Amino acid sequence: xTNSSSxxxxxxxxxxxxxxxxxxxxxxxxxxxxxxxxxxxxxxxxHITGLLEGEDVMQTAQAMQAMGANPKRIAPGEWRVIGQGxxxxxxxxxxxxxxxxxxSARLLSGILSSHGFFSVMTGDGSLRKRPMARxxxxxxxTGAKFLTRxxxxxxxxxxxxxxxxPVGYRLPVASAQVKSAILLAGLNADGIxxxxxxxxxRDHTENMLRHFGVDVRIEDLVDGGKKISLKGPVTLxxxxxxxxxxxxxxxxxxxxxAMISGSEICIEGVGLNPLRTGAFEVxxxxxxxxxIENEHVEGGEPIGDLVIKGSNLKGVxxxxxxxxxxxxxxxxxxxxxxxxxxxxxFRGLExxxxxxxxxxxxxxxxxxxxxxxxxxxxxxxIITGTRxxxxxxxxxxxxxxxxxxMSASILGLVAQKGIKVDDIRFIRTxxxxxxxxxxxxxxxxxV
Length: 447
Ligand code: S3P
Known about the structure:
Layout: E1 10-12, E2 20-24, H1 29-41, E3 43-49, H2 55-66, E4 72-75, E5 78-84, E6 96-97, H3 102-113, E7 118-122, H4 133-139, E8 145-149, E9 153-159, E10 168-170, H5 176-186, E11 191-197, H6 204-211, E12 217-220, E13 226-232, E14 240-242, H7 247-259, E15 264-271, H8 278-285, E16 289-298, E17 301-309, E18 317-318, H9 330-339, E19 343-346, H10 359-368, E20 373-377, E21 380-384, E22 395-396, H11 402-414, E23 419-421, H12 434-440
Parallel strand pairs: 2-15, 3-14, 6-7, 10-11, 18-19, 22-23
Antiparallel strand pairs: 1-23, 3-5, 4-5, 7-9, 8-9, 11-13, 12-13, 15-17, 16-17, 19-21, 20-21
Helix pairs in contact: 1-2, 1-6, 3-5, 4-5, 7-9, 7-11, 9-10, 9-11
The structure holds shikimate-3-phosphate.
Subcellular location: Cytoplasm
Pathway: Metabolic intermediate biosynthesis; chorismate biosynthesis; chorismate from D-erythrose 4-phosphate and phosphoenolpyruvate: step 6/7
Enzyme class: transferase
């Protein structure tokens, strides 16, 4: 497991060749977590294909196992889950360890709040620094009790309630995890649970609950936000779920190919939910030669193949309201910005400070440590592009953050003096075959 293995540094040299070929990236992390959780809450046996088998999702599988659902792997990416029914999970006998996974911790908190038993949750050194009050504050309205370390951090004890009150809450920050936690608590609450979000965030919970037969209502608010509601208690019916390729994972390859002139790659079967694809739009604004082929809908989610060719990238100004649709992509887009011609301004990045690391600071340190000029204006990052001449030569500290590690590895490919990455272990939380796939495209990572 992530905690016990020793640090794995990586040296990356300037890459003098091109990336070519056709690949598929592993299943979407957000959808994979939800597939396991919702199947465990359904009546009957659900069948999942394309499940991401990264450590984060495996933490969710273990937690569902500890509570009596029985997720079984029958082939790579193919799982069967015997659902227990809403409110029917069993008290876990031991501490639930969520590893590095904020999505597991936050969504499960919602489920646990409306189950009438006691549980304790912890995580690794990164997760134990992340704020949980954003979920425990609204979830306390159910009648559940949460006891956390100071500052609302894990470990956390939860006394759930079988007689949960429905929560009504307007999100103070745009967060799909908080929205989902509240909706999941509402599945076993008596009455209407609602959440208002000021800016639309990823809607995989809403889509998948509907797929499992739940009547989820979504209204547009006059201020541009959304109100999502459901009436509990509900029954979820077991379903088949096909998980699309993860657009966040695909973006690492897309940026690498966009920067390296002469490259041309195709990534097949990627999820194209419009609330996830902000980074693709920004890459196009930057001048990337990116197009989508074979677009179709599967299991309520749009899917397609992404084809990208190397091209000259230019700096852009990205407004704050784009952030929810590309929140996980700023580390790798900041590498594209550093390589581009001109200045890029990413606006409104306050939420980056509470990810697997303080990504705001991690990005600044990664780029400045490799000779790129980065300025900070409040929550905005201003990156002065190098026109393809990133000096490099630095060591990137990844702070237990998978996306920082992958971004740094790509930075190394295009940095004149290469770079060193302090620790690549955490990449397996979300993208276990990242290096083999990059090498399949022609990169020569020595791992
Ligand atoms: C996720 C939501 C986002 C994202 C995370 C996955 C989800 O977090 O950063 O990687 O699956 O709901 P926030 O809800 O905290 O923005």
